[in-house]
Design brief:
Strand content: 5-15%
CATH class of the largest domain: Alpha Beta
Structural class: alpha+beta
CATH topology of the largest domain: Glutaredoxin
Distance between the termini: 48 Å
Helix content: 55-70%
Largest sheet: 5 strands, mixed
Length: 260
């Protein structure tokens, strides 16, 4: 952080000297030790002035950061991000609905379980007007996230309805996900999944490639943590409450980008 030594020096000098700013600049140029001596003579005043300067600088940087983030966020309304919606995509809600919610998620992430609750609330609130797509972003430090994603995709290849139930079961029983494949198999068996086909598909290149596609797309959009969402192309990074998404939907309507 770059602070103005002149400003700090002025704070020390002007309370006891009659020098103006130009004179102070000239004096410091000729003899920089003046500042050192002033600090030594007034250590508490120097620390106070320095702390005040740091606080002002931080507040200024925060305002600039918030302004930049707001400007970037607003730009997405005119140039939304465009995720791939595959022909065989599992659509939850109403296919082709005006509201499209895409999530990049991790079955072992506690924040994603909160995101799951938000998704259910949005599906209920905007019933008939929203379609939801679940995509994968298993994080490396969650050892059971990738296997869970593979089981989800392998089950989806048999039945979308059973894949949805598998998805919901894992997020509603997050602690059991740590049991890994033993638990995934037990859930699949309860759902009546063809276990022989499942064992084959879990290890298939098709499943691995699909998850990899999701991961690459998430990275392209700047999602590093989970959950990450795209609401009609507007990015939401984190497990924000339902009201946050409702606010974006209201903005889309106000800007004429959404007619519901």
């Amino acid at each position: 952080m770059k602070l103005s030594l002149l400003g700090i020096a002025a704070a020390l000098f002007f309370s006891s000297c009659t020098m103006n700013e130009d004179q102070l600049k000239e004096a410091l140029k000729k003899d920089p030790s003046i500042l050192t001596e002033a600090i030594k003579a007034n250590p508490s005043e120097f620390i106070e002035a320095l702390n005040e300067a740091v606080q002002v600088a931080r507040a200024d940087m925060q305002k600039k950061k918030e302004a930049e983030e707001k400007k970037k966020f607003e730009a997405y309304f005119d140039e939304p991000l465009k995720p791939e919606i595959r022909d065989e995509e599992l659509i939850r809600g109403t296919k082709g609905a005006p509201i499209t919610l895409v999530e990049y998620s991790d079955f072992e992430c506690p924040y994603c379980s909160k995101g799951y609750e938000t998704v259910l609330e949005l599906l209920e609130k905007y019933e008939g007007k929203i379609q939801f797509v679940y995509k994968h972003l298993p994080l490396s430090f969650h050892p059971n996230a990738l296997p869970a994603a593979k089981y989800y995709e392998a089950i989806r290849m048999q039945s979308e309805d059973k894949a949805i139930k598998f998805h919901d079961n894992l997020f509603e029983n997050l602690a059991k996900v740590k049991k890994g494949e033993k638990y995934f198999k037990s859930v699949a068996k309860e759902l009546g999944v063809d276990m022989k086909k499942l064992a084959k598909d879990v290890k298939s290149e098709e499943v691995a490639k699909r998850i990899e596609q999701d991961q690459k797309e998430a990275a392209k959009f700047g999602f590093q943590g989970t959950p990450g969402f795209l609401l009609n192309g507007i990015p939401v990074k984190g497990a924000y409450p339902t009201d946050h998404f409702v606010g974006i939907i209201d903005q889309l309507k106000e800007k004429g980008k959404l007619d519901i």
